[in-house]
Amino acid sequence: MSDDVVIVFTMADMPPVTSLLDRAAGLYMFSTESGSWYELDFDASTLTRIRMDDDPATALRRDGEPLLLVTIIDVTVSRPARFWVDLELPGAVQTLRSTTEVLEIIEIRATAESATSTSVE
Predict the structure, then answer these.
(1) What average pLDDT is seen over the chain?
(2) Measured CA angle at 18 (ends 63, 42), to 5 deg
(3) Terminus-to-terminus CA distance in the chain, angstroms?
(4) What is the pLDDT of residue 87?
(5) In Å, how far from its chain's centre is CA 9?
(6) pLDDT greater at residue 16 or residue 107
(7) Mean of the pLDDT values across residues 104-119?
(8) Stretch 9-19: mean pLDDT
(9) Do strands 67-74 and 46-50 pair parallel, antiparallel, or not at all (unpaired)?
(10) What is the structure's pLDDT at 121?
């Protein structure tokens, strides 16, 4: 018989995130009513849209690629998310991106420091 202790941690143990307006660090995923998922990385200042379908009608320029996040206007559950991003296009300084209603926000990593592991001896 082993003396190892196993701790099970589930997303249900974490307090729900309802808005990212009060956050300045960390990595978050959020889903929208259209079925898209977004990865928002405050530490890298990037936003990545992850499409869940292959419909060309729902495609946006640079889907799946991290975009430079300039400003967050709103990322709140039950409201459309809106942000300014830099697509790095000649002649275009910033682009406004809007989503359908945000359904859920999941905290993946609270801060850049928590991404590094430490061992306790």
Answers:
(1) 82
(2) 50
(3) 22
(4) 83
(5) 21
(6) 107
(7) 67
(8) 71
(9) antiparallel
(10) 39
Written as six digits, the tokens of 53 are: 């379908």
- Residue 57 has φ and ψ, to the nearest 5°, of -70, -20
Phi and psi at residue 92, to the nearest 5°:
-115, 115
| Rounded CA separation 54/121 (Å) | 49
For the residues of the chain, what is the DSSP string, one character each?
----------GGGSPPB-BSTT--SSEEEEEETTS-EEEEETTTTEEEEE-SS--GGG--TTTTS-EEEEEEEE-BBTSEEEEEEE--BTTB--EEEEEEEEEEEEEEESSSGGGS-----
Phi, psi of 85 (to 5 degrees): -130, 160
